[in-house]
Amino acid sequence: YNNGLHDFEEELSEEASKMLEFFSICTDASSTIVDGVRKDIGDPTEVALIVACQNYVKKPVYSEFKRIEDLPFDSDRKMMTVILDYNGKYLVITKGAPDIVMSNSIHTTTEEQLMLDANNKMADKALRVLGVAYKIIDTLPTELTSANVETGLTFLGLVGMIDPARPEVKEAIKVASLAGIRTIMITGDHVSTAKAIAKQLNILREGDIALSSAELKLLSDEELYENIERYSVYARVAPEDKVRIVKAWQSKGHVVAMTGDGVNDSPALK
Fold it and tell me: For 149, what's the count of Cα atoms within 13 Å in the CB-facing half-sphere?
């Protein structure tokens, strides 16, 4: 982030190569070539990071080190961490929501503002943005927790990627609307990213409001009930937010259909 925003097509600096390699290491996905055909396994966002590293990092440095521990991603922390055996020490790499990764890093106010500006510029273009940070420690804690692993990090940078809606989605939402069905977006993305995509799909209409999870938490149940029909987009959501949103719509007498593909969607689906 010290050098502004760059496309991967440009010659990567040593720092940018390091950042991209750290992103690709801190994943649970894989992308390999089998009989001339690329085989991807895992989350598409993580696959994209791995493929970008394969395409643009000419001399990987850190990928040879063995991964020995990890703290898996969860929707409450909005981060994941891997730990590598690193020349007798331990390399901790954390990726996740940029604002949360930054808040767990050591930085100046100027550095934080640079990160926020770059994050917002990419999010406004409907890009999904991730941050990565790291630290090197001499010994491993007896018990690995977010509090003793994912703190005191050095923030390295951001990557933005497009996670476009499938071509048929806009028409599907239009058809649903003509049938009297309103579509609400609930996403883990940054609110600016969510708003940009929701406008493209005509989910966020004139006068509608996009809320972040933090803003939703500040609303009482009564306030949510009174204004539920004004909110079309919820961003950076926690699992419990989904249940609350569904119940608020139901309490107004609406029939609600909920879709979701993650285990943390189960309570809201139920």
Answer: 24
